[in-house]
């Protein structure tokens, strides 16, 4: 069997390595138009910032490595320009010499990846405008920063790479302005979680211009000013483009490969396309959501590796199948970790789920061990009691909690199951009732209507509609005077039983504290006194004040 793979980063090399492990006799050739193979694109911001010292750390394997270890021919700077699916041949151009030749295949894998989106902005091709996608981009950006000692950078786009670049440049002493056309950072996050990231960025000196669109990069081949649609102008020394990527599907389209709903190549669980003996894997290929079963495209190296291994196994007679993804992601900015998996609240509502939403703020470990608060937002389906998605913002322990939630969602666990998990506990690592366990417990109680939750957005909508409600702040008077929910009255928990005698037990009642725990205690008191419609404000006053400050 002769296997030809187009593309040599995460997916392409994973296909080749797995195929070789299964079949020593296969002839395997990889073509790639780039200079580098199997590199860590996700590490590029840290190379630009100097946290990763050498580019060799991002490119640990080269063509010689694959030839020696796997007997695989990796041909860099070779661009496949056409595929004849009937003759089973590829046309290849050697980009160094300009020579063109034809190669035959028995099986073809498209692992052509994705490319940075370059917006059609005047001045975007200036010499100090840098996309961030491959090692050449990394080298060019770092070289510019090292040689020119810039004072200001403008980053267009507030996704993973944009925020990581902002951190790394700021740590190098460069002032940073981020411009994002959506009115929040990290558009995949719900606004009430993204605002926590925005607050942290601003505290660390990052200027945010959200809900703004760049219309022009001004300068004679070298950008000096950035102009937005609203007429704002930013003086800058260079520009980072981080507005997203798109799958490299041109070759696939030209040979008749079907694209999916997301614009990436449509594949089945075996990574097969609509053309016999043609597979696709990695950033160029579409996946599907474990939660909804619908097509989803989330270009990440972790997914590309899984897809590549599956394709390599299937091609050589194996039985692996791609099981879908949750769109899990995590990043760090100025010490703050931000993670997401599954559906956001806004997605779940758009898809028609009847959902329960919890904002749970708890320390990752006891305060006496230096624990710091993390906020977990969890979305569950009331009908099935299954988790639909989770977002976490915090400083420590975020990665291990999101991975527990990923496992729970993947295995269709119910929210009730989370409390019963026998999670590792010792004071240096966790609290006795881990935030994961607490999340499941509160969601289960709310779905059962034993301890119902109301989000800040839902509460504010009812206030704005003029609904007759009792809103009770259960904190100390000094806390109440600093900041409180609109229309609330202050009744500290210790006084609640007596004060409740003068309240209407049948009127909708909302109780809250700072984070939710005392609010839950107050909720239980009122329920036991015969109040029929009592809610605890999800995330407490801290969550409400963020909602009021940053909007929904």
UniProtKB/TrEMBL annotation:
Q: Which PROSITE patterns match?
A: RHODANESE_3 (PS50206)
Recorded GO terms, molecular function?
A: oxidoreductase activity
Q: Which cofactor does it need?
A: FAD
Kindly state which keywords UniProt assigns to this record, in alphabetical order: FAD, Flavoprotein, Oxidoreductase, Redox-active center
Identify the SMART domains for this entry: RHOD
Q: Domain Rhodanese: where?
A: 465-549
* Record keyword Flavoprotein present: yes
Q: Looking at the keywords, is Oxidoreductase present?
A: yes
Among Pfam families, the record links this protein to:
Pyr_redox_2, Pyr_redox_dim, Rhodanese
So what family is this one in? Belongs to the class-III pyridine nucleotide-disulfide oxidoreductase family.
Q: What is this protein called?
A: Pyridine nucleotide-disulphide oxidoreductase dimerisation region
Classification from the root reads: Bacteria, Bacillati, Bacillota, Bacilli, Bacillales
């Amino acid at each position: 069997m002769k296997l030809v793979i187009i593309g040599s980063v995460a997916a392409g090399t994973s296909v080749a390595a797995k195929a070789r492990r299964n079949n020593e006799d296969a002839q395997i050739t990889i073509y790639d138009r780039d200079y580098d193979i199997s590199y860590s694109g996700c590490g590029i911001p840290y190379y630009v910032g100097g946290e990763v010292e050498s580019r060799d750390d991002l490119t640990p394997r080269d063509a010689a490595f694959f030839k020696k270890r796997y007997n695989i021919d990796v041909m860099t700077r070779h661009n496949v320009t056409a595929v004849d699916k009937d003759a089973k041949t590829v046309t290849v151009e050697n980009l160094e010499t300009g020579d063109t030749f034809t190669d035959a295949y028995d099986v073809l894998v498209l692992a052509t990846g994705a490319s940075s989106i370059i917006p059609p902005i005047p001045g975007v091709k200036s010499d100090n405008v840098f996309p961030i996608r491959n090692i050449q981009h990394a080298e060019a950006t770092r070289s510019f920063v090292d040689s020119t000692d810039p004072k200001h950078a403008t980053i267009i786009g507030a996704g993973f790479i944009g925020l990581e670049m902002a951190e790394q440049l700021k740590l190098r002493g460069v002032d940073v302005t981020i411009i994002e056309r959506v009115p929040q950072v990290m558009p995949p996050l719900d606004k009430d979680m993204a605002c926590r990231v925005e607050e942290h960025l601003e505290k660390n000196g990052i200027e945010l211009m959200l809900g703004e669109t760049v219309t022009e990069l001004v300068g004679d081949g070298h950008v000096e000013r950035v102009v937005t649609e609203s007429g704002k102008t930013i003086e800058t020394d260079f520009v980072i483009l981080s507005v997203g990527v798109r799958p490299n599907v041109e070759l696939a389209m030209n040979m008749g490969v079907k694209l999916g709903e997301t614009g990436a190549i449509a594949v089945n669980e075996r990574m097969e396309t609509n053309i016999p003996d043609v597979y696709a894997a990695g950033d160029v290929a579409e996946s599907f959501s474990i939660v909804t079963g619908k097509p989803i495209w989330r270009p990440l190296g972790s997914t590309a590796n899984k897809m590549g291994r599956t394709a390599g196994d299937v091609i050589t007679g194996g039985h692996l199948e791609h099981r879908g993804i949750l769109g899990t992601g995590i990043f760090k900015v100025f010490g703050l970790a931000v993670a997401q998996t599954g559906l956001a609240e806004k997605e779940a509502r758009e898809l028609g789920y009847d959902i329960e939403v919890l904002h749970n703020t708890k320390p990752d470990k006891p305060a006496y061990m230096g624990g710091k608060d993390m906020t977990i937002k969890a979305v569950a389906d009331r009908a099935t009691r299954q988790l639909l998605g989770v977002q976490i913002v915090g400083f420590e322990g975020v990665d291990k909690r999101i991975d527990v939630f990923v496992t729970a969602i993947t295995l269709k666990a119910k929210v009730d199951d989370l409390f019963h998990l026998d999670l590792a506990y010792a004071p240096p690592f966790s609290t006795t009732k881990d935030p994961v366990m607490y999340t499941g417990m509160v969601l289960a109680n709310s779905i059962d209507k034993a301890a119902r939750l109301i989000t800040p957005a839902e509460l504010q909508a009812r206030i704005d509609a003029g609904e007759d409600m009792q809103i009770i702040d259960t904190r100390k008077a000094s806390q109440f005077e600093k900041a409180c929910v609109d229309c609330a009255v202050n009744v500290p928990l210790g006084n609640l039983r007596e004060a409740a005698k003068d309240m209407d037990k049948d009127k909708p009642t909302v109780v809250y504290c700072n984070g939710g725990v005392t609010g839950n205690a107050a909720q239980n008191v009122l329920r036991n006194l015969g109040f029929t419609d009592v809610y605890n404000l999800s995330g407490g006053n801290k969550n409400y004040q963020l909602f009021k400050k940053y909007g929904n």
